[in-house]
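Reviewers of the previous submission asked for a worked example of the structure-prediction workflow described in the proposal, so we include one complete record here. The input consisted solely of the amino acid sequence. No template or homolog information was supplied to the procedure at any stage.
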Amino acid sequence: MNAAVQSAPAQVRRAWFAWIAVCLIWGTTYVAVKVSLQTVPPFLQGGLRNIVAGLVLAAGLAARGHKLPGREAWGRLAVLGFFMFLFGNGGVVWGVERLPSGLAAVLVGTSPFWMVGVEALDAGRGQFQRRQLIGLVVGFAGIVILVWPDIAQGGVGGRAFLLGVISVQLACAGWAIGSSYTRRHVMPGDVLGSAAMQMVFGGMFLTLLGTTLGEWGRLSFTGLTVSAMLYLVFAGSVIAFTAYSYALRHLDVATVSLYTYINPVIAVALGTVLLGEPFHMRMVVAAGVILIGTLIVGRNAP
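From that input alone, the workflow returned the following structure tokens.
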């Protein structure tokens, strides 16, 4: 029996609010990542962001008398940090450096398929119904409708484009493995403490990789990139990742993964409002298709 079945109705309601927060916040972080990459190299960006966010969350919990996970839990939390941050966060940021941020958000839309596959590998769990799979396909079709003209035009070609696509897909795979592992091994009463430690471990892995690649020599800051980093730390990491961890404990993993269908819609909206990009009727059609896919899968959440 999975965690969502065991959750009380009040917990499930709060989990849905947490999921909405994830959809809204992570939909805006692609722009912030792209801005910060102007002066902050990708792996140091993820490393510094998550170390600071993890320490801020841990300090807040400690100030409220919350006991952080002990050393006996550090091993599994380091595993989560490795998959969800070194692979997940690091892969996306490295990909965004080589791809338009909106296209990267679209590619992350394949995460539900990775999550379905990871869950299905566990023979005793992850029994997905046909309706859920149909919902995933419908949602992805909405993303294709939304961005097909941009994909057809390309905009970024050759080897860099291919490497960016591969990087984002590796990120999706790592995030799916970490998300599934979270549901199996993170205790419900320790979601916040575990989230803080995951970010610290993940940030350490990313910083180590950035150091190995010589990124410190390319690191600098401007007022704009500092603002972007602060947004990523507090909104993108502290608030949104905590909400994501809570949602994973009380909702079906395929349902939670549908935030990746909402993110591209928000990215397009931001491009229209902030960057003056043209608005097309296909955006309305795509939003409707994505919503239908979300509702189809959501009806099957335990």
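Residues 1-5 have pLDDT under 50 and may be disordered. We consider this example representative of the routine output the project will generate in years two and three.
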